[in-house]
Amino acid sequence: MKIAVGGIHTECSTYSPVQQTASDFTVTRGKDLLVQAGVDGGRFPDVTFCPLFHARSIPGGPVSADCYASFKSAFLAELEAEKPCDGVLLIMHGAMHVIGLSDAEGDWISAVRQLVGPQVPIAVSYDLHGNVTQTIVDQIDIFCAYRTAPHIDVTETHRRAAANLVDQLGGGPKRYVAWAPVPVLLPGERTSTEDEPTKSLYARLPVFDQRSGVTDANLMVGYVWADTARATAAAVVTGTDLDAIQQAASEIAAQYWSARQDFEFGVPTKPLELCLGDAATESSSPLILADSGDNPTGGGVGDRSDVLAAWLERGLTGGVFAGIADPVSVDKLWALPEGSSSRLTIGGALGSDCKVVSTEAVLLSKLGREQDHNREVLTRIAGNLVILTEHRRPFHQLEDFRRFAIEPSTARFLIVKSGYLSPELAPIANPARMALTDGAVNQDIEALTNQHRPVPSYPFQRVFDWKPVTSLSRRAPS
């Protein structure tokens, strides 16, 4: 068997002022791509996996039309060069928004289908925060999505998709896909699989897998910060029996709908001023404060200084702010020796409309290289440590801090641009707080501009009746 592997993966807030271009993406190829896909090392001995490329960016704003077109044409050219293929494994996200396109993944997957023809099965691996459409379902044979948020089963999900594909190509029964959109749109911070009711809903999915005729059951939360017509939660089920997959999709969708009023934030979540009040009186440490509205891993810009401004106005000290994207300040400090002082204006450097901080900063250390465009600086501002970065990025790993000789577990306060905390930071939080802050991924979703989302959708509209309606892929026999 010969299976082509690749795809494109990003999450795009339509409320972000920053448009993504090719420079925002990291492209993985060759053996590294097979490792990322979880199909390396002879795991599927009867298969030759042919890596094309996988383009991935930190979530952000919409992708430019030129950037998307360039990646798409390059991908199709590489896929054409590998033909004939017995199957295709696409590693996607599902929440990419491209200027001028209403369904970017639908466009990408449809182009792959047109190129390989109707007989070649296509398997896709998705983030559970992706959006699904009938166009996507009509092009594919196998659909598998993450079952954890925070995402700790990424490679496992790719392997589930690959295993379904390999089994079908090896003579196993043909797979089909059924789905049921659910008119609910909630942020990931209220649907973490670490917390109820999401925890139990996702724990049931493997039970559906054991049903006769079902091979992979999925619940999609969807992506709320894209004001698009395709934004929706959904149940998506792969299997070999049409009745079984439709029944499973209907049940999963109904369970999610029934729980719609039960989803809450998993950590104490308050307006920023109340979170700062907690910091002023908290004796245990580290208190980890999440600046949720500017979270880069959800599509936030990462350049807002609202929290820093409010923190300094209160006279709080001992905070580690990681980090704020500010290429202008980084460039200014880069020319100075460590230990120098400089007057900085921090905030909104990438286009966010936010309160700026004009302050004196002492340069403590520098990391990265100018030619690699990855410069970062550690500064001291009014008794706090503030990391400024050349490019927007999250600080979710312990090593992100230790590179600057900061031990996160012994800090008094860590202030990170995040929603729910990452698997590395959550265990050390003592305690954790999530601040309801402004930004491109504002948690006050009912206040978001809402021009294109389906109506009705909970919680934008709250009083309406709904029952699941399932649809099959057009690749299923009629």
Summarize the structure.
The protein has 478 residues and is an alpha/beta fold.
Write up what this structure looks like.
The chain has 478 residues and is of the alpha/beta class. The protein contains twelve helices and 19 strands. The strands form three sheets. The protein has a nine-stranded mixed beta sheet. Strands 2-3-1-4-5-6 form a six-stranded mixed beta sheet, sandwiched between helices. The model has no long low-confidence stretch (mean pLDDT 97). The protein has helices at 30-37, 65-82, 104-116, 134-139, 154-169, 198-203, 205-209, 242-258, 272-281, 306-313, 327-334, 398-402; strands at residues 2-9, 25-29, 48-57, 87-91, 122-126, 142-145, 176-182, 214-220, 233-239, 269-271, 287-291, 319-325, 341-346, 357-367, 376-381, 384-389, 413-416, 432-436, 471-472. The chain is globular and about 70 Å long.
Query: Could you tell me the number of beta strands?
Result: 19
Give the proportion of residues in helices: 25-40%
Q: What number is the mean pLDDT?
A: 97
Radius of gyration: 23 Å
Number of helices: 12
